[in-house]
Amino acid sequence: MTDAPLHIDLKAILRKRGGGAARVPAFVVGWLERLVHQRELNEVLSTAWPREGWEFAEAAAEYYDLKIITEGMERLPEGGRFIFASNHPLGGLDGISLIAVLGKRYGNENFRFLVNDMLMNVEPLRNVFLPINKYGSQGRAAAKAINDTYASDAQMAIFPAGLVSRLQKGEIKDLQWQKAFVAKAIEFDRTIVPVHFLAYNSRRFYKIAQWRKKLGIKFNLEQILLPGEMSKSRGKTFRIVFGDPIAPSDLSKLGKTPGAIAEAIKERVYSLS
Question: Which letter does DSSP use for residue 49 in this model?
Answer without folding.
Answer: T
